[in-house]
Fold these 4 entries.
Entry 1:
Amino acid sequence: VTPGTKIPDGEVWSGSPAKFLRKVTKEDIEYIQSHSAQMSSLALLHAGECEKDYKQLAKDEEEYEDKEHRADDYWQPTDEDPADIQ
């Protein structure tokens, strides 16, 4: 879409250069409404993961590996400094 172009409400445009495809359907609106809460939840989860520092990421990875590869009765989380991990 070139600068200054105004797309009317209720239309779907696509491509480069953008071209009119079709009018928005009731199914489009229902889909957007039903998935908006799910997308908001996913965005919050993503933001939480992005704000982690290296130490937290290393700890999360260690816990994941322990849970994946060790028996439940063996799993022992540690408080090692992730900076010591090579």
Entry 2:
Amino acid sequence: QFSVLFEFSRAMPTREATTVFFCRHGETDWNLGKRFQGHIDIPLNEAGGRQAQQIADTLKQHQIVAVWSSPLTRARNTAAAIAASSNAVLCVDNRLLERELGVMQGCTAYEVRGKHPKAWAAWKTQTPFPKDAGVEPDSAVIYRVESALFELAAKYPGKSVAIVGHGAALRSVLLRAVGTASISVLSVGPGRAWRVVQVGYEAHLRGLRGMGFFKDSDSNEWGEDMAATTVLLCRHGETDWNLDRRFQGMVDMPLNSLGRKQAGMIAQALENKSLSAVWTSPLQRARETGGIISDKIGIELQVEDRLRERNLGVMQGRNPTQLREEFPSIIDAWIAQIELPPEAQAEPASEVVERIESALFDLAAAYPGKTVALILHGASIRCLLKRAVGNARITTPKNVSMTTMVVGPGRKWRLVQVADVSHMPKPTKEELLHRLKITSGSAKL
């Protein structure tokens, strides 16, 4: 539920981050006609007025203390409904104005394709526009919108606020389109930092719009690139605790010497994949693996907290034999591949899947039609695989294995290949004997 999902914003006041509900204004006749508005001041239509009230009704439960809005009528009228419902201060701020769309303004998507093909290509691929298009650069839009975000967060630390803005401006900031009357949630601060919590929430919308009609954020005709993204899930290289069969979870173990060699091998395998991005868990064993890959292929490594390993509670630091002696019900559940009992004090598998899916969908929206790599962990990948196969049994992927997924368009994904290790040499007889000695007497994971 929407209200439950964002409960954390009130449960962690010591962070002093501000929760920003960034709303796109309600529908206009030009939205319905797939016509670019830009700075042209088009009012809400009848459906847009109803959508504004539906946003207001949804946000009322979140104790909104302030509402900031673009000066354009369609945004101000949406914001006025929110402010009235929440009994909050309404402020109009020019920094939240829609993006200047130059030659595209007033044209339908079809007309822009025919009259201004270079501008259309730039819009569709989210690349810089030709100068003669007269379109405000992405960097300028991001600068002014972030300026407003940071000022709002400084003024209302630890509070919940709402912003009402526009589709093209939000597209510049979020690197993806959102529908009319949708709500995106950002956590802003402390300081000049922000992150996306959720993008394009629309479950509050009722009527035809709520049933999926008249959407303007997910159509090829409207210019959104709906190509799926290929995601390569790579498990990190070996650590000493992998060798000892100890559960690591959130314990921050480094790679061992073999793990670093393994990272080099998977980096070589990824070199011919034409990667557009490499994201990694913040834990050291994943960051080290990601760093070796990043250096090999020449792409900057992005650290993403949502890719962290599953917190395994009391399992962390113990091997299966120790768990059998101390917590038999926990190791039984792990082997049976069912939900861990409460005494495990572990992160629920559903929450692991939710946060990793969130990162997957953001990554796919930013790199449609591209190939990207994620460096993460065995227990986390295991949760995703179980989500895909249901009651069927799986095997936890080996170190530096590669699982291929297709993500998108939209909020969906499917598996293509699981735990490929064809890029790794077969272990020598000596290595197999060493591992057999280490694991002798341990339960099978």
Entry 3:
Amino acid sequence: TNDVWVSTLHRVIVPTGTNDGAAEDADADADADMATQVVERRQSVAFFVNANGDAVVEPIPTCVTETNPARYEAVTAGEYLMRKHLASMGKDI
């Protein structure tokens, strides 16, 4: 979007709550960690997808104007993924 729209920070927060049974236990006051427990079991599944390596990635034309010129060069998805991979390994791009 040529920085017209900013993506949302994605994160998972494990829901927690008070363990009422532990609060009644005299020893529980000594250990604050015992007073908090996971309320619900939560499972996450990672899903990874890659674009066609030959697909050109570039700013959306309606997000490029005279006052907001293209901030990023066009690149194929394959080139972009390879750059990210090499950078993660500390290699020159």
Entry 4:
Amino acid sequence: GVREHCCFLKQVEDARRIRTAIVNLFERANLPNLTDDQRKEILTFAVIGAGPTGVEFASELRDFIEQDGPKYYPNLLKHVRIKVIEASPTILAPFDKSL
């Protein structure tokens, strides 16, 4: 269910937990016995909600991967996928459409 497979982002401690989980996923994906498909599965991040928090988190996740990834996991970067999933037809709905 959701509680077992998702990380919530409501408090500072949640952000720490997410960072640790991301690093753990990279470590897991770096195991030598995995196939490329398994690495892609492990390194696919789904951000649920395209409001301000979801879009900002997806952006920060990408920055984290692009800045720290080449130093520690250069061979894994090609497997990373970040997907933002939104139920409504627009992203950043609270903001003016001209943005």
